[in-house]
Amino acid sequence: MIDVVLVGNPNTGKTTLFNSLTGAHEHVGNWHGVTVEQKSRIYKYKNHDVNLIDLPGIYSLTALSYEESEGTNFLLKNRNKLVVNICDASNLQRNLYLTLGLLEAGFNIILVINQIDKKPLCKIDFAKLENKLNVKVVYIDAGNKKSVEKVNDAICNFQSKTPKKLPYLDNFDFSSINDIKNIEKNDIFTKIKILEDDDVIKKQFGINKNLNKMEEVASVRYNYIDNVLSQCSTTKIHPYGYSKLDKVLLNRIFALPIFILILCVVFYITFFAIGAFLSNGLNFLLDKFIMSPLSSFISSHIGENHFFVSLFDNAIAGGVGTIISFLPQVALLFFFLSLLEDSGYLSRVAFVFDDILSKVGLSGKSVYTLLMGFGCSTSAVLTARNMEDKNSKIKTALLTPYMSCSAKFPIYTVLGGAFFGAKNIFVIIGLYFLGVFIAIFLSWIFEKTILKSKAQSFILEFPPYRNMNFKRTLSLLWQNIKLFITRVASVILAMNIIVWVLSNFTITFKFIGNDDGISILETLGKVLSPIFIPLGFNSWGLISALIAGLVAKEVVVSSIAMFNGTQQNIASTLFISSSAAYFASGSSVISYLIFCLLYFPCIATCSVLWREIGKKWTIVGIVIEFLVAYIVSMLAYFVFRGFEILSFWQVIILFIFIIMILFAIIFIFKKIRKKKTCPYNEFCKNKNCDNCN
């Protein structure tokens, strides 16, 4: 067995190479922090078994964040393993900084140069580079399986070379640490780590003072890299990642509006234009060729009144069929997220939001987590690990469920479409941005109260704008589609059957069928319904759907469809008319949609939160989510209900009146709370002071 560790800077194609070598399907992205924990896989090449370990991206052997500490700690404990160090051909100046650190530490390395861009910014003489660094150099395209065979050949035929002394090491001044005991004279690596103020090494040798030599060390290394590259490559045309597009996309005034516009276009295409057309088509095909024929077949063989017919029509055809019809929209959403990742634009978004988020105790790193929350909150929470500050990690993880994950948009599309028609696009966009706004607002509250963040480092690298890798995108889409179908065929199907049983049997477990009777679910819903009267909805069916949605948010839609008996035809007049009985008005619908957006996360997300940030903060987060959902939904209901009952100007006047009352109450409260102080002595605390009284 050959043990190989795969290391490299973020955004060099490391995970792509891991997938190509092993046949795995790990998620890749055009930003740092995609890999937050090590992954390993054993594969066979010719007559050799190779155990390949993929570490999180690191910039050097001095860790500045969680994922970097994961990588550096593993490396330093396994110096005997062969290291494949991958670099981007267009960004060698930065990437070789880690290479030098590995050579200083005495690792046996294979240097893999990955041509991410078809036209790299510089041409490299690999023979010269190999000779200068005294390491094996392999030039590949990490996404091409035939190309990466050269890496396998290098691994299987690797022969350790006698290490050359790196010439720049003589430029380091170790005079300030020569008197430290227990450091071997030839242990250059440890001495350099002390100069860099590495906390782990300093603690090991009992060093308390800061030497502040990191910039000096970096300068020496980069000067050597520049010298090597000047002899081995042509001059770069322009800085790595530079683009004229950034003058517009990163403009102080236009950056944020452009990002919002891009999201609006994505949502319109996904939920209305192409997405709606494809979903309706899939819905028709399911009904015409699968669900209806199966329902007729079952009815003809066991009778129309049999409980199994009801189970199939409502739980399977009505519930699961409803969710499957959203498959095209799910695929489109992930397609556009992949497009933003591959293009290099997502890193720019992090830069745009870093200044905004820093004011509420977060950083640009949080953008990656929150944007991934639009796909799946469960996997997005895991990426919060890359926060080096504990409080920032907790905040980011707690705020991720406020993003509208892909499981929530069937709720918006079905209920909103049924009641608002074409205007539903504004409702959906409003819900997405409402989640973001509330997350930022809560972060500000946390920052001012219980979760104040420390200053954080945020290393951001702009990759060049790139064309989409369609092969990788199609592979990623297929993985997400398989995950969606698996989820529908397991969790959602099982939950729909449970909901059907609870809604079709009484507490004495008697099948209701066409007979009158109160089901278990209706009984539970009616017990809880008074709680939701201030929110404008108190139907047992809606409340029961919310309870079912704790397992998976998609079940909210399938449950309502099941209660309505509409089977998979979610756009039917029957669905609209039967759902109307659940809501008193359009304001009730908006209140319900907002509650679905903000209330408890699904069980899978809760379990990940429990593991990542602990029991206490998970419970606190769940309680806060319910309170926020309740308050915001209630306010939204009263505001929109006001517009339905009163004229526009009457609502505005009423709103101003309420604001004035609130300010008056706050002003009076502050006056009452204000401590009396002696006008002659501001430090006087004597309650019986004659001057104060």
C-alpha-based Rg, rounded: 30 Å
Mean pLDDT: 80
> Spans of 5+ residues with little confidence (pLDDT < 50)?
29-35, 566-574
**What is the multimeric organization of the chains shown?**
single chain
Number of domains: 3
Q: What is the rounded distance between the termini?
A: 87 Å
Q: What overall form do the CA principal axes indicate?
A: globular
Number of strands: 6
- The amount of helix comes to 55-70%
- Secondary structure class reads mainly alpha
* Biggest sheet: strand arrangement: 2-3-1-4-5-6
Helix count?
A: 28
Largest sheet: 6 strands, mixed
β-strand percent reads 5-15%
Characterization of this structure:
By secondary structure, the chain is mainly alpha-helical. It contains 28 helices and six strands. The chain has three domains: 1-240, Rossmann fold (3-Layer(aba) Sandwich), CATH 3.40.50; 256-645, no CATH class; 650-693, no CATH class. The chain has helices at residues 14-22, 66-77, 92-104, 126-133, 149-156, 188-195, 199-204, 214-232, 246-249, 255-271, 274-302, 307-324, 327-343, 345-358, 364-372, 377-382, 390-399, 409-420, 424-448, 470-504, 520-528, 540-548, 554-564, 573-580, 586-598, 603-613, 615-645, 648-673, and strands at 2-8, 39-45, 48-54, 82-88, 109-114, 136-140. α10 runs antiparallel to α13 (327-343).
Task: Identify the notable features of this structure and list them briefly.
single chain, mainly alpha, globular, Rossmann fold, 28 helices, six-stranded mixed β-sheet, 693 residues, 6 strands
